[in-house]
Specification:
The protein is of the alpha/beta class. The longest helix has 12 residues. The strands form 4 sheets. It has a 9-stranded mixed sheet with strand order 11-10-9-8-14-6-15-18-17, sandwiched between helices. Helices cover 27% and strands 26% of the residues. It contains 12 helices and 18 strands. The mean pLDDT is 94. A hairpin with a 2-residue loop joins β1 and β2. Keywords: Hydrolase, Metal-binding, Multifunctional enzyme, NADP, Oxidoreductase, Riboflavin biosynthesis, Zinc. InterPro entries: APOBEC/CMP_deaminase_Zn-bd (IPR016192), CMP_dCMP_dom (IPR002125), Cytidine_deaminase-like (IPR016193), DHFR-like_dom_sf (IPR024072), Eubact_RibD (IPR004794), RibD_C (IPR011549), RibDG_C (IPR002734), Riboflavin_Biosynth_HTPR (IPR050765). It catalyses: 5-amino-6-(5-phospho-D-ribitylamino)uracil + NADP(+) = 5-amino-6-(5-phospho-D-ribosylamino)uracil + NADPH + H(+); 2,5-diamino-6-hydroxy-4-(5-phosphoribosylamino)-pyrimidine + H2O + H(+) = 5-amino-6-(5-phospho-D-ribosylamino)uracil + NH4(+).
């Protein structure tokens, strides 16, 4: 099962809207087939592993990191494929909450006389599939918020200089995180200030994450890296419902617009995330800026917080990592549980999970 989970993780950021599943077929103590969900979500892990195994799958044990699907889509149900292959036993890490599955995959296997064991390394599997589960359960993707700041919580000087607060090792780790998510999301201010590409670089990635920009008024430079490369790597623009014709130049460049609700003069991040989930995204990596980060925190939609702290101080005149949040009492402040602290080059990386 450890191998099945490891295989599945290799598909993170590459298989949406489907879950990143791994499957291992074992016969007489020998691995005869193994696979993960293919890029783009098809084919699933199970039929690929069974194809590798061939006739050796008959009487074998299949280890799967998520309950096999039970519904007909572009391909037959994986549960029935396992039955037809003649496997004798299926070990499942965790069940699938998708209403089209939700125990039905297990029932198909059991009705065929196959021994089924559920719950092996379940906690790991639930963490790995958290994005898919979030999209199914709460209708929004899993959100990882990344902050890279000085010891006093600044992300740039008063003049806007920010390259580079953290070192090359931290920046490389950020690219690795981008690769594990379906999309990279930033606010309009980040695009205006930095003209970022938001791609994964120098890591051999062939399938780039979607680039998402949140901008109510579309007050963005029409000629920027994102528009120039929109036909190569997808760019989605979350805009206000009143965008009207202002979206036209972006649409002509190949950018996809997502109309979102506006609350108190800003795009509702809840509405934006729901729109991204409807388009199939399961995991979103947000890189700021301060206004978007604060909005995500205030709306309690941050599932994981990653903070890179650099050993320098800029002072109060520097740009804060978080915009004003209107918090008067400490009891109102969003709080997270510390899960990990590591040194990355000359910087410190801390990971926090929602309470």
């Amino acid at each position: 099962m450890a191998l099945a989970l490891s295989l599945g993780r290799r598909g993170m950021g590459r298989v949406w809207p489907n879950p990143a599943v791994g499957c291992v077929i074992v016969k007489d103590g020998i691995i005869v087939g193994r696979a993960r969900t293919a890029d783009g979500g098809r084919p699933h892990a199970e039929p690929q592993a069974l194809e590798q195994a061939g006739e050796r799958a008959r009487g074998a044990t299949a280890y799967v990191s998520l309950e096999p699907c039970a519904h007909y889509g572009q391909t037959p149900p994986c549960a029935k494929t396992l039955v037809e292959a003649g496997v004798a036993r299926v070990v499942i890490a965790c069940t699938d909450p998708d209403p089209r599955v939700a125990g039905q995959g297990i029932k198909i296997l059991q009705d065929a006389g196959i021994e089924v064991l559920v719950g092996v390394r379940e906690a790991e599997a639930q963490r790995d599939h958290a994005g898919f589960f979030s999209r199914i359960g709460v209708k929004r993707p899993w959100v990882t918020l990344k902050l890279a700041c000085t010891l006093d919580g600044r992300i740039a000087t008063a003049t806007g200089e920010s390259k580079w607060i953290t070192g090359p090792e931290a920046r490389r780790l950020v690219h690795a995180q981008r690769a594990k998510h379906d999309a990279v999301m930033v606010g309009a201010g980040t695009v205006r200030a930095d003209d970022p590409s938001l791609t994964v670089r120098d890591m051999g990635v062939t399938r780039q994450p979607v680039r998402v920009v949140v901008s109510r008024r579309l007050d963005l430079p029409a000629d920027c890296i994102l528009t120039r490369t929109a036909n190569e790597v997808p760019v989605w623009l979350c805009h206000g419902e009143d965008a009207g014709n202002r979206l036209n130049p972006w649409a002509e460049a190949g950018v996809v617009g997502i109309s979102c609700k506006v609350e108190q003069g800003q795009i509702s991040v809840v509405s934006a995330l729901e729109g991204l989930a409807e388009k199939g995204l399961t995991r979103v990596f947000c890189e700021g800026g301060g206004t978007l980060a604060a909005s995500l925190l205030l709306n309690d939609v941050v599932d994981e917080l990653i903070v890179f702290s650099a050993g320098m101080g800029i002072g109060a005149e520097g740009m804060p990592a978080l915009a004003a949040m209107g918090i008067d009492a400490l009891s109102e402040a969003p709080r997270f549980n510390l899960t990990e602290v590591t040194q990355v080059g000359r910087d410190i990386c801390s990971r926090w999970s929602r309470r």
